């Protein structure tokens, strides 16, 4: 049984930018542990000489010309913003 | 009898002959919605005023050969619609009332002159197999409203099955079109990865997601896919491969078709009734002149674990965009920037979404990447090779879509792993990137639909449709409708 400690849960939550309550830490620790245990069945397979698949189609990088074009106006871009000021997105202070 | 009992081509003929008007079709939708959607709960947002205005405009303009002229459609709520609220079933986007553009599939539907009736409920950000993860309400199965409609495109399956729209669009990352189609007794296709542009589909797992049609018949399904397919310069993963006239492959002829039946797809967990329905279907195919043999997809048992590692990892990256800055709901309590991210996301996301972001972030984190994420990518290669091997000798892979018919609301929601196991027969198809369809093939003793899954080679939707159509035309399963009352 894979153990995902409460400390690990808190670390991962911070990486994922999620605020978690003590109760959630407890629950995620248990649930992620059992999901990871389930996932460890993949270790039954020898994959040393297997290439990873990132993409099922044989696609190459797709390039386009770097040309500017009209997409959204400033007004449109701000239309759904929770907070805005003077034509820009407004956010709480970044520095303490 | 509803107008939606007619096929797209029959309705086009009726419009052409002036037996019906576009407004009649739109009326059919909204009347049915008012009759049954308080029970089914398929719609999150209705587009009634605009849809009726569009109907009038189309009537005045007249039909000019557009393929879906005047036909009412429902759209899964993770497909962006300009000016029409798009929530992805999430509270985070509850205020996303004014999206700035139409997804490519919506632009294509608009060009074909279909009418968007409204936006359909789904598991939050398409993560779920029952619709219970919608943060608004749970859509119900029209065949028995105590049961789930499947997920994540549960609203799409239920709306088509209950006659509220003629067709719907869904999205399928691990079975999210096919599983609800099976549970609701309709036709749902997940196209080949790359067949349909995902521009404007809110991303869940980018190496797996595809948009596809949900319809009552195979022919209608093929007709909608013809419209929405094709290369799009706005989606660099869309394939630059010609779109065939899929309707032309509906010949009814499956003589000599080589069908592979993976023994893993009829094994443990598959109920007796589902197994029997699939075996009956094979007899039908034999009678129609097709041949079948048992084969093995030996890595099938690893598909669920592989899928949850990969899809959650991709989701954890894709959902990083929900930061509360540019759109969506921002927590009012945040005192600084980091707190704004954390509180907005924690308050806006539901439990399953958080769980998958946590799993994905863990699998991608330093020290675990090789053991989990990369390992899963390697097993994905083995799963894909299983399909390649079988498709060297066979045209179609056949099995059930789901191990059981629709389960009850509340039955599986408590344990994530129990819920995940439900997708065991659909997930491998996404991992391999091949097309798969679910069509009705019978009913359980409780009267719930059973889905037959047909899987084809890359970009061979034509053969998938041909096989599905031949079976459909030789059976009556698709003619049964749920009894919700009213003029269904």
UniProtKB/TrEMBL annotation, chain A:
EC number: 6.3.5.-
A Gene Ontology biological process term: translation
Region (Disordered): 75-96
MF terms in GO: ATP binding; glutaminyl-tRNA synthase (glutamine-hydrolyzing) activity; transferase activity
Subunit structure, as described in the record: Heterotrimer of A, B and C subunits.
Entry's family note: Belongs to the GatC family.
Protein's recorded name: Aspartyl/glutamyl-tRNA(Asn/Gln) amidotransferase subunit C
Automatic annotation (TrEMBL), chain B:
Assigned GO CC terms: glutamyl-tRNA(Gln) amidotransferase complex
Key word RNA-binding present: no
GO biological process terms on file: translation
Catalytic reaction list: L-glutamyl-tRNA(Gln) + L-glutamine + ATP + H2O = L-glutaminyl-tRNA(Gln) + L-glutamate + ADP + phosphate + H(+)
Enzyme class: ligase
Keywords of this entry: ATP-binding, Ligase, Nucleotide-binding, Protein biosynthesis, Transferase
Active-site residues, Swiss-Prot/TrEMBL: 76, 152, 176
Sequence ranges assigned to domain Amidase in this UniProt record: 24-464
One MF annotation (Gene Ontology) recorded for this entry: transferase activity
EC number: 6.3.5.7
PANTHER family tied to this protein: GLUTAMYL-TRNA(GLN) AMIDOTRANSFERASE SUBUNIT A (PTHR11895:SF151), TRANSAMIDASE (PTHR11895)
Family statement: Belongs to the amidase family. GatA subfamily.
Role according to the record: Allows the formation of correctly charged Gln-tRNA(Gln) through the transamidation of misacylated Glu-tRNA(Gln) in organisms which lack glutaminyl-tRNA synthetase. The reaction takes place in the presence of glutamine and ATP through an activated gamma-phospho-Glu-tRNA(Gln).
Subunit structure: Heterotrimer of A, B and C subunits.
Alphabetized HAMAP family for the sequence: GatA (MF_00120)
Protein's UniProt name: Glutamyl-tRNA(Gln) amidotransferase subunit A
Annotated organism of origin: Salirhabdus euzebyi
């Amino acid at each position: 049984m894979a153990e995902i400690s409460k400390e690990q849960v808190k670390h991962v939550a911070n990486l994922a930018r999620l605020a978690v309550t003590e109760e959630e830490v407890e629950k995620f620790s248990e649930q992620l542990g059992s999901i990871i245990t389930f996932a460890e069945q993949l270790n039954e397979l020898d994959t040393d000489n297997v290439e990873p698949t990132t993409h099922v189609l044989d696609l190459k990088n797709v390039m386009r010309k770097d040309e500017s074009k009209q997409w959204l106006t400033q007004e449109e871009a701000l239309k759904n913003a929770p907070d805005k000021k003077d034509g820009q997105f407004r956010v709480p202070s970044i520095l303490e | 009898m509803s107008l939606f009992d007619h096929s797209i081509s029959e309705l086009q003929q009726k419009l052409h002959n002036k037996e019906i008007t576009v407004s009649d079709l739109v009326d059919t939708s909204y009347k049915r919605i008012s009759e049954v959607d308080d029970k089914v709960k398929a719609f999150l947002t209705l587009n009634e005023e605009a849809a009726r205005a569009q109907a009038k405009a189309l009537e005045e303009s007249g039909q000019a050969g557009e393929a879906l002229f005047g036909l009412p459609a429902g759209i899964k709520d993770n497909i962006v619609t300009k000016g029409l609220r798009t929530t992805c079933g999430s509270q985070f986007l509850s205020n996303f009332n004014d999206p700035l553009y139409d997804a490519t599939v919506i632009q294509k539907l608009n060009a074909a002159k279909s009418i968007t009736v409204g936006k359909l409920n789904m598991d939050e950000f398409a993560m779920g197999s029952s619709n219970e993860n919608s943060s608004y309400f749970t859509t119900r199965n029209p065949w028995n409203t105590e049961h789930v409609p499947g997920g994540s495109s549960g609203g799409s399956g239920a709306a088509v099955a209950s006659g509220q729209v003629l067709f719907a669009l869904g999205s399928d990352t691990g079975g999210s079109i096919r599983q609800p189609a099976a549970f609701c007794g309709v036709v749902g296709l997940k196209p080949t990865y790359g067949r349909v542009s995902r521009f404007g589909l809110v991303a869940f797992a980018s190496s797996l997601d595809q948009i596809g049609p949900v319809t009552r018949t195979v022919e209608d399904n093929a007709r909608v896919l013809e419209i929405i397919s094709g290369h799009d310069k706005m989606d660099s993963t869309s394939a630059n491969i010609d779109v065939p006239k899929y309707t032309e492959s509906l010949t009814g002829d499956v003589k000599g078709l080589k069908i592979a039946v993976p023994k893993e797809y009829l094994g443990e967990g598959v109920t007796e009734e589902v197994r029997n329905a699939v075996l009956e279907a094979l007899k039908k195919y034999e009678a129609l002149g097709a041949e079948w043999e048992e084969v093995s997809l030996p890595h099938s048992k690893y598909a669920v674990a592989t899928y949850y590692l990969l899809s959650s990892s991709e989701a954890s990256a894709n959902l990083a965009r929900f930061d509360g800055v540019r759109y969506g709901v921002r927590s009012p309590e945040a005192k600084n920037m980091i707190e704004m991210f954390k509180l907005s996301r924690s308050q806006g996301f539901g439990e399953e979404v958080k769980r998958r972001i946590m799993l994905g972030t863990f699998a991608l984190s330093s020290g675990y990447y090789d053991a989990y994420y990369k390992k899963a990518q390697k097993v994905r290669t083995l799963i894909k090779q299983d399909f390649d091997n079988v498709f060297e000798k066979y045209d179609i892979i056949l099995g059930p879509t789901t191990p059981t018919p629709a389960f009850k609301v509340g039955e599986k929601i408590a344990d994530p792993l129990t819920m995940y196991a439900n997708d065991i027969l659909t997930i491998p198809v996404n991992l391999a990137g091949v097309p798969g369809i679910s069509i009705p093939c019978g009913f359980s003793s409780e009267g719930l639909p059973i889905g037959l899954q047909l899987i084809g080679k890359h970009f061979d939707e034509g053969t998938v449709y041909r096989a599905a159509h031949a079976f459909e035309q030789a059976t009556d399963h698709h003619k049964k409708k749920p009894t919700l009352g009213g003029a269904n």
